[in-house]
Structures are given as C-alpha cells and as structure tokens.
Design brief:
92 residues; 434 Repressor (Amino-terminal Domain); single chain; mainly alpha
Length: 92
C-alpha cells in the first residue's frame, strides 16, 4: 500500500501543464508578432500541426507540449494583456 501512496503522491506533485484556451494561445502568438509558420518551424513541425495545437484540435506530444507551455508562459510575461482570462496571467 505504501508504494501505491507514493505513486499517487508522485502524480499529485507533477506540475500542471494545462494549456490555456485556444483564443488565448492565438492572442499571445499574435501579440508577439509571429506567424503560425514561424512557430511551427521553431518546433520542427508542419504549420498544420501547429494550427491544430493552437486551435485545440490536438495536443502536442509531451516534449513539444512542455516547450509550447514554456513559450506561452514567456509570451504571457511579455504581453500580460493578451493572457487575460488565462491561468498564465499573473495575479496583480
């Protein structure tokens, strides 16, 4: 039973990596002055794959999701007005 509790504790301690809404994702990218193509190239994926990430039709795999979430958080820091309504927005 102790192993099971440790496994549950490990799951609970994982950071939340929920992406913001598709509207916020697009606002953050646009506020940064980047196209979907530019972001897709940086991630090494086709523009259509990135489009599906941005509009919520699909989720990036773990490696890309972690990097995409990092990018979104960075954009939210630079453009807090675009992050309004998301959990990426910093509390004032």
């Amino acid at each position: 039973m102790n192993d099971l509790n440790e496994a549950v504790d490990a799951l609970l301690s994982r950071p939340v990596d929920v992406l913001p809404s598709p509207e916020v994702r697009a606002r953050l990218r646009k506020a940064s002055g980047l196209t979907q193509e530019e972001v897709a190239q940086a991630f090494g994926v086709h523009r259509m794959a990135f489009l599906r990430w941005e509009n919520g039709q699909s989720m990036p795999r773990r490696r890309h999701r972690d990097a995409y979430l990092r990018l979104l958080r960075g954009w939210a820091d630079k453009h807090p007005e675009a992050a309004l309504g998301s959990d990426l927005a910093k509390a004032g």
